[in-house]
Automatic annotation (TrEMBL):
GO terms for cellular component: nucleus. It comes from Penicillium angulare. The lineage of its organism: Eukaryota, Fungi, Dikarya, Ascomycota, Pezizomycotina. It comes from the Eukaryota. It is found in: Nucleus. It holds the Pfam family Fungal_trans_2. Transmembrane segments: none annotated. One of its GO terms (biological process) is positive regulation of transcription by RNA polymerase II. Keywords: Nucleus. This is Fungal-specific transcription factor domain-containing protein. The keyword Disulfide bond does not apply.
Length: 457
C-alpha cells in the first residue's frame, strides 16, 4: 500500500461482495438487501482504489462499507441536507489522497471491532493519512481548497482516534481543529461549497468540545465555542439529526459546563438564581423535529429527550457537594430523589425504544453514561450493564467499551466509600489524593484508569 499521490480508477464491487465480508458486523436490521438498498447515494457497484502502489485487497470493501454502512448510520436523516459524511466528506475523499486513506482507516477500524484482520489495514491507512497531513501542513500557503482538505482530514483523524477506544490524541486533533477553523474564518470570499463545509466543521467542533467538557478537564487554549449561527442547520430548537438534539440544548449544556469549570480546585459560590434559571431553561426547552421527512422509527424525539434529561442530571452533579471536588455548599435546587428520577427516566426511555435508538451513531450514549455513573441501586446498574452489552454487540462504536469501564470504576470507588468500616481510612487517603481536583466522579475514574479522555459522541 503506497502513501504517495494516487490516481483513481473504478472497480466493480457488488453488494454480494460487501455482504460476504461484513455480514458478521452488520446490525440485524441492516442485513437484508431491502434495508440496504436505501442506504447508498453512489451506485451499488461503484467503489474506488488507488491505481498506483500496491492497494490492499481490502480497499474496495472498506470504501463500500464506509459508504453503505457508516455513512448511512451517521445521522438520523440520510439526505443531502442532513448527512455531511455522505454528501460532503465522501466526495472529498474521492479527490484527496489524505482523506481517502483516512476514510478507509475509519472503515477498517470499525470492522476491526468484529474481525482483527482489519487492524493492519486500519493502521496502514491511518499512517498514510498522517503522512499526507504532515506534507500539506508544510506548504507555505494554503488555498481555499487546501484549507478545506486539511480541516476535513483533521476531523477524520479525530474520528479515527475516538473509534479506537477513545485514544487521548483525539483531543489534540480537536485543539488543532479549532486553530484551523479560526484561520479559515479569516479567509474572505469562500465558495458556496466551502461555506457549507464550514457549517459542518463548526457543528462538529462545538458538539465534540461541549460534550468533552462534561467528561473531563479540556486544556484547549483560547477556548471559544462557535455561535449558534455558525453551525445552525435550521432553527436553534430543531433537533440536529447528526447530534441527536438541538443547538439550543447544546448551548445550555455549555452553560452548565461553564458553571462547572468556572473556577477550579477552590470553593465556588454558585448563585442559586443562576442555577434555577438554567434548570428552568432545561425544563422548558422544546426540541422540534427536522422539517424534512423523517422516518418515525428513528426515535429522533426520544433521543433528544434523553439528552435533555442528561443535561438536567449534569446540572445536578455540578451543584452537588458530593462531586469529586466536594468543595461547594449544597444548593436547594435539587434533592437526591430528583436526581434518582432523572436516572430512572433516562434508562426507562432508552430501554423502551433501544432497538431503533441504537441503529445510528446519534444513539444517546452521553445521557446513558451519566445515568450509569449516577446509578446507585442494583436494579439500575443491571439495566446499564445490559444496555452497554447490547451496544457492544453491535460492534460499530469503539468508544463503548471504555465508557463502560469508567462507569464500573465509578461504582467500585463509590462502593468503597460507602463501606462504613473503611470510611475513615479512605477519607484520610483522599485528603492526600492528588486526584481530588477532578471535577466529576467520572473524571476521577478516568484519571485513575490512565488519564483517559473519553469521547461520548
Amino acid at each position: 500500500m503506497g502513501c504517495s499521490k494516487q490516481n483513481y480508477i473504478f472497480l466493480n464491487t457488488t453488494f454480494e461482495d460487501l455482504e460476504i465480508h461484513v455480514d458478521d458486523v452488520l446490525p440485524r436490521q441492516a442485513r437484508s438487501p431491502k434495508t440496504l438498498t436505501g442506504y447508498g447515494s453512489l451506485p451499488r457497484c461503484l467503489s474506488t482504489f488507488p491505481k498506483g502502489g500496491k492497494p490492499s485487497d481490502y480497499d474496495p470493501v472498506l470504501l463500500s462499507y464506509f459508504e453503505d454502512i457508516i455513512c448511512s448510520s451517521s445521522t438520523l436523516v440520510d439526505n443531502a441536507h442532513y448527512n455531511p459524511y455522505r454528501y460532503l466528506i465522501l466526495p472529498m475523499a474521492l479527490e484527496s489522497d489524505g482523506l481517502y486513506h483516512a476514510t478507509l482507516a475509519i472503515a477498517a477500524n470499525t470492522l476491526c471491532l468484529s474481525d482483527s484482520r482489519y487492524r493492519l489495514p486500519a493502521l496502514e491507512h491511518h499512517h498514510c493519512a498522517l503522512v499526507y497531513l504532515k506534507e500539506i501542513l508544510g506548504h507555505k500557503t494554503w488555498g481555499e481548497k487546501e484549507l478545506d482538505e486539511i480541516l476535513g482530514l483533521v476531523l477524520m483523524l479525530c474520528w479515527f482516534d475516538i473509534s479506537d477506544n477513545s485514544r487521548p490524541s483525539w483531543v489534540t486533533h480537536l485543539s488543532g481543529f479549532q486553530d484551523l477553523i479560526r484561520t479559515r474564518q479569516e479567509r474572505p470570499g469562500r465558495s458556496f461549497h466551502s461555506q457549507t463545509l464550514s457549517g459542518f466543521f463548526n457543528r462538529y467542533f462545538a458538539f465534540h468540545l461541549v460534550l468533552a467538557r462534561t467528561a473531563f478537564r479540556v486544556d484547549i487554549p483560547n477556548y471559544k465555542l462557535p455561535t449558534s449561527t455558525d453551525f445552525m442547520i435550521e432553527s436553534p430548537d430543531t433537533i440536529d439529526p447528526y447530534m441527536g438534539f438541538s443547538q439550543s440544548l447544546l448551548l445550555l449544556i455549555d452553560r452548565v459546563t461553564e458553571l462547572a469549570w468556572s473556577k477550579e480546585d477552590e470553593q465556588i459560590n454558585i448563585s442559586p438564581s443562576t442555577v434555577h434559571t438554567l434548570k428552568k431553561d432545561l425544563e422548558d426547552i422544546q426540541q422540534r423535529l427536522p422539517s424534512e421527512q423523517i422516518d418515525p422509527t428513528t426515535e429522533c424525539a426520544s433521543i433528544a429527550e434523553a439528552n435533555r434529561l442528561g443535561a438536567l442530571l449534569l446540572l445536578h452533579e455540578t451543584c452537588s457537594p458530593k462531586s469529586a471536588s466536594a468543595n461547594k455548599p449544597s444548593l436547594p435546587i435539587f434533592d437526591q430523589e430528583e436526581k434518582n428520577q432523572f436516572v430512572k427516566r433516562i434508562l426507562s426511555l432508552i430501554m423502551g425504544k433501544k432497538a431503533n435508538m441504537m441503529r445510528t451513531a446519534a444513539l444517546p450514549l452521553w445521557p446513558l453514561f451519566l445515568a450509569g455513573c449516577c446509578a446507585r441501586g442494583d436494579e439500575e446498574r443491571v439495566i446499564v450493564l445490559r444496555l452497554f452489552e447490547e451496544l457492544n454487540d453491535i460492534r460499530r462504536f469503539g468508544n463503548i467499551s471504555p465508557a463502560k469501564e469508567v462507569i464500573e470504576m465509578v461504582w467500585r470507588r463509590r462502593d468503597l466509600l460507602a463501606d462504613e468500616g473503611k470510611r475513615q481510612s479512605v477519607d484520610t487517603k483522599l485528603k492526600k489524593d492528588p486526584l481530588r481536583g477532578a471535577r466529576f466522579t467520572w473524571e476521577h475514574a478516568m484519571v485513575m484508569l490512565g488519564d483517559w479522555k473519553l469521547s461520548l459522541t
